[in-house]
Every structure is written in C-alpha cells, then in structure tokens.
Amino acid sequence: MSNIYKSRKYVLIFLAPAFLFMIIYLYYPFFVNIYGSFRAIKNLGTYGTKWNDPWYENYVKLVTDPVVRTSLKNTFLMIIATIVGQVGIALLLAILVDNIERGTQFFRTVYFFPIVISATALGLLFNLIFLYDRGMLNQFLELLGRDSLIDWKGESLAIFTMMLPVVWQYVGFYFVILQTGLNNISQELYESAAIDGATRLQRVIYISLPLLRNVICTCLTLGVTGALKVFDLPWTMFPKGMPLKETFLTGTYMYYQTMEAKNVDYGATLAVLIVVLGVVLSRVTGMVFKESEDF
Amino acid sequence: MYEELVQKGESMKMKKLTAVLMTALMTTSAIGCGSTAPTEAPAEQAAATNEAADTAATTEEAPAAQEEAPAQEETGPVEITVTTTFAGEDSNAQNYKNSVAGWEAATGNTVSDTSATSDETFKTRIITDFETGSEPDVLFFFNGADANDFVNAGKVVSIDDIRAEFPEYASNMNDDLIAASPADGVKYAVPVNGYWEAMFVNTKVLEDAGVAMPGADYTWDQFLDDCEKIKAAGYAPIAAALGNIPHYWWEFGIYNQQTPADHLNIPESADDATGAQWVAGLEDIKTLYEKGYFPDNTLSATDDETFAMFTDDKAAFLLDGSWKVGGIVGSCQSDPDDPSTIDADKLSHFDVTYFPGKGNRKTTDLIGGLSMGYYITTKAWEDPEKKAAAVSFVEYMTSDEVVPLFAQHTASALKNAPAVDETQFNALQVKAMDMMSGVTSLTGAVQDLFNGDCRVSTFDGMPDIVVGNVSAADAVQEGIDVYKDTLE
C-alpha cells in the first residue's frame, strides 16, 4: 500500500484549489488594481479609456493630497487606540476576572457580546447615543444641568467619537484570548507564590504578565493589522469623512474616492497604499512583538 | 467644444422641455385647484398635475389592482428585476409596493425588487451594475447626464424602438414632455411623476419669532432679516446639513444669481460670467453659514437630523424637493404608514413657499421638471422571455390610473389628466398645489447636467468652502476641470 504522504503529487493536488482561488481572487485583482491606478477610470468594472497624464499622476497626488495625510494620521491613531484601548483594557479586564472565583463565564459572555453585533448596527446605535439633538449623552448632560448641547461629531470631538465604539466593540475579542491564556497558566505557580507571601499584584506582575507575553504579542499583532481594516463602523457614523474630511481612515477614504467621488483610479492608488502599509506594518509588528520561545 | 455641446445642445433641449412642462403644469394646476392660470399658459398642453384624485389618500390599497395589465405575450410567469428609487422615506415607496403588487396580481409575473434610496451611492451602484452586466430588466432612473454612460453604451432601449414592436408603449404620454437623453438626444425613459424644489416653512417657529409667512414677493434681503429674527428667538433659521446634503442650497444659491434663461449654462471657467455667478452663489451660502443661520452642527449632521429639527419645531426653513411632502406628513402621523393617524394640528404648522428671490430671478421661478423615468434595458429587451413582461410592467406603472398616484401635487406627462378631487389631499399637499399654481417658471436643475464627480469639489467640498478652507472660486474651477475631462 502506497503512502500518499510520500508523493508530492498528491500534496500539490490538494494545494492547487486554494492556490488557484488565491490567484484568481487576490493576486490577479491586486495586479489589475495596480494597472488601474495608472489609468483614467470613471466607473467601476472598466479599465478606463486612457492612461493618466502623466501616467504616475495618482502617485504624485497621493503624496500631495492633505486628506491622505489626515487618513494616515487617523489610521495610526486607530492603531494606538487598538493597542492601548482594546488590548490594554482587555488585559486589565482579563486579569481582574481571573482573580474572581465566580462569574467568569458571565463576564466572558458580557464582554464578548459586542463582537457578534454587526458593526453597521453598532454604528447606527452609537449615532443615536452621540446624536446632537435628543441624543442619549446630551440628554444625560441636560439632566445634570448642562444648558448647551455638545456636538460629539463636531470637528473637535469627532476622532474620539469615532474611535470609542471601535475600541469598545473589540475589547471582548482580546479579552477572551487573554483570558484563555491566563487559564493556561498553572495554578500551582500562583499557589507557590502565595505561600511565599506574594501579593495578588505581585503574582500578576511576576507570573501572569511574563507567562502571557506570547499571547499579548499575538493580540497586539492582530490589533495592529486589524486597525488597518476598520471600515464599516466609522463609515456608518462618519460618512464622507464628516466633518471637513477629518475622520477619514485609509480604508474609508479609498471607498469614498471609488464609490462616492467616482475617482476609481485614485481609489485604486489608495488601495495600493493600504496594501503597502499593511505589509510594512505586519513586518514591523512581527519584529517588535516577536514571540519568545522562553515561555 | 464642451461649451458648445452644453449651451447649444443640452441647454436648448432642457429649456424647450421646461417651457412645455411648465405650460402643462400650470394649466392643469389651474384646472385642478380651481385657480386662475397664468396668462401665458396655453390651455391645449394639458399634462397632469395634482391629479391624484380619489386615490391619493388611499395608498394602502393596491392601485388599479382590479384593472387589466397591458397586453403581454403568452410566455408563462416571468420574474423581472426592477430597480427604482421608490424606497426608504420616498413618499411614493408605499405606492410603488402597492402598484407592483397590482401588476403581479394582474399578470402572474413577479418582480425581484432592488430599489434603494436615491443618493450618490445608488447612482454609482447602477452605473457599476451596467458596467458589469448586472443591470436590472427595468430601471427607474434619472434621465439627465447621470444616465449618459449606459445610454452611450447602448444598454437601454429607446422608446421609439419599443414602439416599433409595441405601438401602444407610452402612448398615453405627451411626447413633448418626455425628456431626451443629453447623450444622444433620443428618448429612453418614460416619466411618472415630476418634481419641484421649494422652501418648506415651519409656521410655528415663524410665529414664535414674530416673522410673517413669506409670499410670492419674498426677497433675499427680507430672508436675511427674518433669519436674524429667528436666530434671536433661539431657533435655527435654516434646517440643512451642509456636510451631507448641500444640493438644494447649491442649486438655488447659483440660480439666485441667474435667470431661468441662463440657469442651465455650465461655465467654461470660474472666471467667466457663468462661473462668477456660481462662485457668487456659493459665497452666499458661506455668508449664511458665517451668520450662524444653519444649525450649529450643520457640518457634522446628517440630512435626517436636520430634517428632524425642522419637524420638531426647532428650525424654520427647509429647502427641499416635492418628495419631502410625504416625509413631513409622515412625521405628523403616529404610524408613518397609516394616513388615518395624522395629527392635523401638527401638520397645520407646515407650509411651503418659494425660495427668496435675488437679482433677476423672480421669487416664483422654481427648479423642477420630469427628471426620472422608466428604462427598459437592452438585456431584458433581448431576452425573449422577459421582453414582453418588461414592457407590460412599464406600461402598467405609467398608465393613466397609476401615474396620478405617484404624481399627486407634482407634474406628470399624461395626455389625459384625471379630474382632481382636492378633498382627498392633506393640508400640506393642498398648500403645495396652491404654491405651484403661482409658479412663473420651472427650470431643470443644472446639477443634473454637471453630474457625478464634477460636483464633488462643491458638494462634498461645501464644508471646506463655508469655513474658508477652500475658496469658492477654486472649488468651482476644480469641478469645471473634471467636467472638461469627462467630455474629452
């Protein structure tokens, strides 16, 4: 009886469908997208009728477009918010929950719940919370005696208002991962430390955090790369980068240029930027948050 | 080259259409409302307006369900895909559902409906659908430059070509009122209901601010004075989301620098005469913003939010289209889908009037016309199973019985407009009819010719213009450059 594992032929046969799928639906469109970024394209579904003049026009625009700078700045802010807000808060919550004896499952369910709700639905929900006139927050503030309304989606608060729901939604995701990591730490270590007189805080600092290092690194890598893909919730709450194009992320700006401004070739150029940014950031995070084999 | 195309071609066609439409509209308005028609309105051009008659208030009933659908070849039940803008808060969304149900019941065919609210995303979706071969069988869409791409690509069938095989197709329409495509001058879209754009008024806010209801001689200076009084009384004078839907203010801001005769001209540069008018129009909006006449959150609010301010008695004026009548009436009903739940007292707080006049534009010169219609796509036309069904569907939806349901207080292109029973209209519809009876001209929207990405710098860029980040002249020039590029 022959062993199929000894023949490369069978391996290739099984790998081929997935490989073809990737070629057709990822790499081919990617290269077409690069080609499109040099063409003058008004409508989706076409290659346009002519080359841009000069052919690299969109890449010059990419460098000079102030909205690109705004969207890059906001994307990096989103990455920081992800690291501090999502992973940081999730870590804090996971450690707190790990130190209680009952209700762990309850908190796990409660914190994870926002993940299962559509981001678009959450966007609409938070739109009502942050509504200027008769919004939930402004009504609360009115009850507390404030006599003027706060424009939560105005220029000064828009970034905060946009990032808060995104952070809130994904805290539960990282909470569950970190909680699972904490559960894998042997209780004997904690018991030994307790016998030696270590406080709860010392046990967290000297046992939990070092042994969670690889899990935290994984969360941070997921968070940073995930921040590049955030789209639906910000777009629902702040369509067209409202106000004054101050809330664009790279993803929402690409969508805006393609679907709203009908500048498809420039949208393709922005897509190239996003891919480059994604590759660079994933390499950087891979190096910075490198997992250790010591744990 | 492009100026020649626009000014001599499209503009003349639009003006001719507008003149005929206006004549027809005013004539039938006069008939319907029992008011005196303007003297220059010839009586023989009788198109239908205000002719919802005995069916307007009964939108929950399937219109003409008991009537026979137009003849269709025996091909068995067919499913056709239809995309319209009768969705969401469109005042005809329910009428559309009822009419589709009526056609399905009469023919046994079915409709796979993909209607959506009309906005720029919807337009992009339609154009993309055509580009990728995913277009519907029947499409209710704009008949202006927005349709140029699929018209030029030969992806819709002209009315004449359809009539060659189905002679009765759209035969109940006055052909003079069917707009030709600006792409090739051929008629493709069978219109249903027209539109007008005017200024809705919350009279309760006006009373509280001590401001009189504006009339047919309302001037821009009076408007500014009234806005100041309204603002001093603690209300927002104008309900508008400049960061979301600046379209109406854009149109009238520019129109106020012009006359009906030259409104459809497109500038060659921001420095020429028309360009200067456009810049001045946008500067007027900037002035209003700087004076604080728009809501505090006008740059970050959505249109829905500012509309709610208007219906909640927090803002005085709302510049919008005839389709907003349904939205205002709906806001006065405890059940938006049930006209019997209307709060008549609340509805009495709303009125509609002309946009304040400035310069050579009369206050009573409005924007309006028949800007949309039903297209049959080439894909459906070349499908033997769907061809007759698509024709039957459009014939049904544009029949003498169904069109009045949709047209209500606006215009239609029907040859024989049914008599109007004004008692079937709600108070705001009656006020709209009164207002329309005093209109001196109805001109198409220049933004329908200056379409798509040309408008981005002044539509999406409106917040930057009003706060001074970008000058109006630069924004206009940027749009013109894109426009020229699209003509090459």
Give structural notes.
The complex is a heterodimer of chains A (295) and B (488). Chain A has 295 residues and is mainly alpha-helical. Chain A is 71% helix and 1% strand. Chain B has helices at 2-33, 93-107, 120-131, 148-152, 159-165, 203-209, 220-232, 247-255, 273-290, 303-311, 324-331, 344-347, 378-381, 387-397, 403-407, 427-437, 456-459, 462-467, 472-487, and strands at residues 79-83, 110-113, 138-142, 195-202, 236-238, 315-321, 350-353, 365-369, 372-376, 441-443. In chain B, 40% of the residues lie in helices and 10% in strands. Mean pLDDT of chain B is 84; it is low at 1-67. Chain B is built from 19 helices and ten strands. In chain B, α2 (93-107) links the parallel β1 and β2 (110-113). Chain B is of the alpha/beta class and 488 residues long. Chain B has a domain at 31-195 and 369-426: Periplasmic binding protein-like II (D-Maltodextrin-Binding Protein, domain 2), CATH 3.40.190. The A-B interface holds A 40, 42-46, 131-134, 149, 151, 153-155, 158, 239-240, 242-245, 259-263 and B 120-121, 124, 127-128, 131-132, 149, 243-244, 295-297, 299-302, 305, 308-309, 312, 314, 452-453, 456, 460, 463-464, 467, 469, 485-486.
